[in-house]
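question for whoever is on the cluster today: can someone run the full assembly for these? two chains, 344 residues total. i dont have access anymore since they changed the login thing
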Amino acid sequence: MKFSEAEGRKVVSTSTAETVGKVADYIIDPKQKMVAAIVLKKTSGKEDTIPWDSVDAFGEDAVMIKHEDVLVVPSGRLAELTDKRLKQHGKLVLSSAGVDLGKVEDVEFDPKTGALTALILTNTRIDGRRLLAAGSYAVIVQA
Amino acid sequence: MSLLMRASEIAKRPVVTLEGEDVAQIKDIIYSDSGGQVGGFTLNGRGFLSGPLKTALAWGAVVALGPDAVMIRDEAVLTDRDALVTEIIGKNAGSGGDVLGSRVLTDDGKDLGKVLDVIIEVSDEGPSLADVVGYEIEPAGHLGADLKKVLVPLPDTIAASGQHLIVPAAALDFVTNDLAGFGAAMRDFREQLAQGHHEVF
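^ ran it for u. tokens below:
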């Protein structure tokens, strides 16, 4: 599944059968090469972030969680990772050899495990296992 | 595998950590070994009007010198600039290094032209070195009136001061005008030197 495909998808609580928000963004953990959390829009409170572990199912039509309570305001590690949002389309990708590989257009991930499977750049696709880091200047991938 | 690049292209290249932060940009090259190798770089800040930084980057701390960025582990590897310059140039100040604008003389007394740029070879095999392997020069008239710039390969050791660069007369045979052909020309030249015969045309 790609980030772009899931944009705007409703997030539903299985205990109340209500929509608690819509998928807007992702926080990734470059070292674990995983989605760390999903960020929502149109939530009722200021808690807008769901840690990946709290996602019960990331389905084709809806993301399922147990209850609105699992939404948090990022703190600790999640807060540190908050500027790793790859949704900044156009983020530069540099290899560890100092070569400009292009810009991030989209990201592919495994909806069951949250693993980042690929970075989709304008002209190429980079295996997610090559991801090393995401900083304010560039995403770094193994050369 | 090795890569040839011009010193002038390295200036202004961003210095980026493996965490994806751009911490500086390359200002100048500090040459060591009488101008034969790259010892390190001085740095400018990254902002629009940023000036020179008090820190500098030793060659040993460079993870990779790529066409789009110079990669380093993290900002902590940058060292004090004045200390690094002293360490690299040491007591040989006045020799080697800054050859831009010097005249290139063959060892049999022929002026080849003026140094415009330095050609550096970066190898990714074995101990990583950035070797000065040649110069781009504005040729003196006799070398070819239609050529604006030519590339002169270097043997492993040459003599250089701020005024002159002395090259073996045989270097003349290997002068080319494109960087792509220069790699082959340089290897041929060095091989010929190693075999010990100098043919002067």
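summary bc i know u wont read the tokens: Chain A has a mean pLDDT of 91. The radius of gyration of chain A is 15 Å.
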